[in-house]
Design brief:
- The protein has helices at residues 32-49, 66-74, 91-107, 120-136; strands at 7-10, 13-18, 21-25, 52-57, 81-87, 114-117.
- The protein has a six-stranded mixed sheet with strand order 1-2-3-4-5-6, sandwiched between helices.
- It is an alpha/beta fold.
- It has one domain: STAS domain (Transcription Regulator spoIIAA, 2-Layer Sandwich), CATH 3.30.750.24.
Length: 137
């Protein structure tokens, strides 16, 4: 498989690929076509590593429309995720993402492991500690 470039631009957002980890910076609203591109990038990481983890910089995130949340919840690759971690998010973003995660557990076959931290180093430490769970599957 050819090597992917380490950084991708999805509208105003960026995705940096670091092995099996996607570091995602959302700036403003996250549109459906941007989610579709993120799914393609993540599918490629899964094809290479068998699983993935995601770190989100939540300091600049805007709206995440219902169609994007629905697509995320229905995407089969979510089962290959060993953790999602968000740092720098406001209280309202943390609340919304917690509700989305609970909804996925209740209403779909997918589950969303998610944690929130103030800083990127804390977020990375949490995600690194979860990686062995994926490798063991």
């Amino acid at each position: 498989m050819p090597r992917m470039p380490p950084e991708h631009t999805l509208g105003p957002h960026t995705v940096r690929i670091e092995g099996d980890v996607l570091h995602i910076t959302l700036r403003g609203e996250f549109a459906l076509q941007e989610m579709q591109k993120l799914v393609e990038l993540t599918d490629d990481v899964i094809a290479r590593h068998g699983f993935y983890g995601a770190i989100f910089d939540g300091s600049q995130v805007g709206a995440i429309p219902p169609a994007v949340r629905r697509m995320s919840g229905q995407w089969p690759g979510l089962k290959k995720c060993y953790g999602n971690v968000i740092y720098g998010a406001s209280f309202s973003v943390r609340t919304i993402m917690s509700l989305v995660a609970r909804g996925l557990k209740l209403f779909s076959a997918n589950s969303l492991e998610i944690a929130f931290f103030k800083s990127e180093p804390e977020a990375r430490a949490w995600l690194t500690a979860r990686r062995p769970l994926a490798a063991a599957d």
